[in-house]
Design brief:
seven-stranded parallel β-sheet; alpha/beta; binds alpha-D-glucopyranose; about 25% helix; globular; about 550 residues; 16 helices
Length: about 550
């Protein structure tokens, strides 16, 4: 291990691998664990602290693997438990920790529990593990409520014997009943299973759901939407979910070093500290940068708010510019700012319109997007707290819009009547070489089509180029390790609303020019710049780091 420090997660850099799209060792077009293991040198050279593996469990892939059929095994298309152990060993030997995804709100409909629930019928103990109800209407042939799933369409699905089950996501993802002691006990066993195999931490999928109050009469969707999110909402962010996490905390603490966890919790700001506290999961994602425009005022507010929140829980903040659920940040920043409603929230996810148009409207400025993305990344990597990177962002990859409808995989596409084209465009297999059947991803094809322009972004093309985005990430992570300081920053006022400057306690300084006009930099040794420039003026859309001391 790079260090025995059990608080590595506080300011670690965690690199998210989406296993089906990273590297394919057996040539079947689907990335696998042996593929990841074949790229250990690449991961080691990147300079990350941990790898977070999105689900690699057996899955019918109704939701990119977030429909888990067996929580304690590896999908045969991705390898075996022995491959997993070898991967963990390989990563550990390079000082890289391993975080795995836990998906506790729902199983796959292929999970043995759900198959048994269907086979055993209404009233059976097996049905108790899920949320089955009788239908509404004279014949029970209407869903119990008008609730809408997160992926669109009804949140209820009828089974042949007439009952309905709740699925807040895809039909193939039945929600579990977290009042069931057997469900709780089984997840504890899963956490122990992976911890015993050497996993260092867990990313908890939709951590704000799990527990639900389905006391009759069930409210309508309109009532649900209007109910306060005060910990007693029937479906979301309930106080009692922390009883689950208190039990998990005892599991985490029973290991040396304690296992870590980070919550994916889409909740009101004031409630984030509940998830981030040491009694609960210990850390929570903040997704504010995913929703912010490349704009100084918004970035400053996001940083300020989240440092305060982190202080309130005693945890550290997390920063994310891209992940497997959103349009890549190089693309977001090359598109006009999205329309915002009066509360400042984007009216729809940034880039969705562009994806829907097949990448034509509004026009994408690839160059500006990439330049701003590099500036935003250097800004983020200097913030106090942990940074989460998503595979491919270190290559400066753009979102792929040109995926034929017939090849789309994301359930949001199928359940939104083609309104939301979904997340396939950031899940296209990585380009490793400029040529070859799948740009070096594997010897076969790629499970999502790669566009021709991927050649320009290939690892092999960027590897030895000192000004490539890949080289910038490597250098940034190396310097970050050297410059890292206490979890604090002070703003240095610039008297320019488009320029942010902050200083870490040891003197590490960061300046980002979010505007178009050059900004006179004055003194300070530039240790790293997101765009190379000469002279004393900091160009627009550029970040620099000034060495401490
Ligand atoms: C999380 C995952 C997303 C998945 C959903 C349902 O939001 O990040 O990819 O579709 O949970 O499991």
């Amino acid at each position: 291990m790079r260090s025995d420090d059990s608080s590595w997660w506080r300011q670690g850099v965690v690199y998210q691998v989406y296993p089906r799209s990273f590297a394919d060792a057996d040539g079947d077009g689907i990335g696998d664990l042996a593929g990841i293991a074949s790229r250990l040198d690449y991961l080691g050279r990147l300079g990350i602290d941990a790898v977070w593996l999105s689900p690699f469990y057996p899955s019918a892939l109704a939701d990119g693997g977030y429909d888990v059929a067996d929580y304690r095994d590896v999908d045969p298309r991705l390898g075996t438990l022995a491959d997993f152990d070898a991967l963990v060993e390989g990563l550990h030997s390079r000082g890289i920790r391993v975080v795995v995804d836990i998906v506790p709100n729902h199983t796959s409909d292929q999970h043995e529990w759900f198959r048994q629930a269907l086979a055993d019928g209404p009233g059976s103990p097996a049905r108790e593990r899920y949320l089955f109800r009788a239908g509404a209407g004279a014949d029970g042939d209407e869903p119990p409520t008008d609730w809408v799933s997160m992926f669109g369409g009804s949140a209820w699905q009828r089974v042949p014997d007439g009952q309905w089950y709740l699925h807040n996501f895809a039909v193939e993802q039945p929600d579990l009943n977290w009042s069931h002691p057997g469900v709780r006990a089984d997840f504890v066993e899963t956490l122990r299973f992976w911890s015993d195999r050497g996993v260092d931490g867990f990313r908890i999928d939709v951590a704000h759901m799990l527990t639900k109050d389905l006391t009759e009469p069930l409210p309508s969707q309109a009532t649900l939407d209007a109910l306060p999110r005060d910990g007693r909402h029937p479906l979301l962010d309930r106080d009692d979910v922390h009883e689950v996490y208190a039990e998990w905390r005892r599991v985490f603490e029973s290991y040396d070093p304690p296992r870590t966890a980070v919550a994916e919790a889409w909740v009101d700001k004031a409630r984030v500290p509940l998830y981030a506290s040491r009694e609960s999961l210990g850390q929570a994602f903040n997704f504010d940068l995913l929703q912010a425009d490349f704009e100084a005022g918004q970035f400053r507010r996001v940083v300020q708010d989240n440092l305060e929140l982190a202080a309130a829980s005693g945890s550290s903040s997390t920063w994310v510019l891209s992940n497997h659920d959103v349009v890549r940040h190089a693309t977001r920043y090359g598109l006009p700012h999205p329309a915002r409603s009066t509360d400042g929230q984007p009216a729809q996810k940034h880039g969705v319109e562009w994806v829907r148009s097949g990448g034509v409207e509004p026009p994408l400025d690839r160059f500006a997007g990439a330049r701003r993305a590099r500036a935003a990344t250097l800004f983020m990597l200097a913030l106090p707290g942990a940074s989460y990177l998503y595979q491919g962002e270190e290559l400066g990859l753009h979102e792929v819009a040109e995926i034929p409808n017939g090849e789309r995989q994301d359930p949001t596409f199928f359940r939104s009547d083609g309104q939301d084209f979904g997340r396939d465009g950031c899940r296209v297999p990585l380009p490793w070489t400029a040529a070859g059947p799948s740009f070096g991803f594997g010897t076969g094809g790629a499970h999502l089509p790669q566009p021709g322009w991927f050649a320009d972004y290939a690892v092999a093309v960027q590897d030895d180029d000192p000004v490539s985005t890949l080289s910038l990430y490597r250098r940034a992570l190396e310097l970050r390790r050297q410059f890292q300081a206490e979890e604090h920053l002070d703003w240095v006022e610039t008297q320019n609303s488009e320029v942010l400057r902050f200083r870490r306690p040891n003197g590490w300084e960061v300046v980002t020019n979010f505007g178009a006009e050059p900004w006179p930099l004055g003194d300070g040794r530039v240790a790293l710049a997101s765009t190379s420039f000469g002279g004393a003026d900091l160009p627009g859309d550029t970040t620099i780091w000034i060495a401490p001391g």
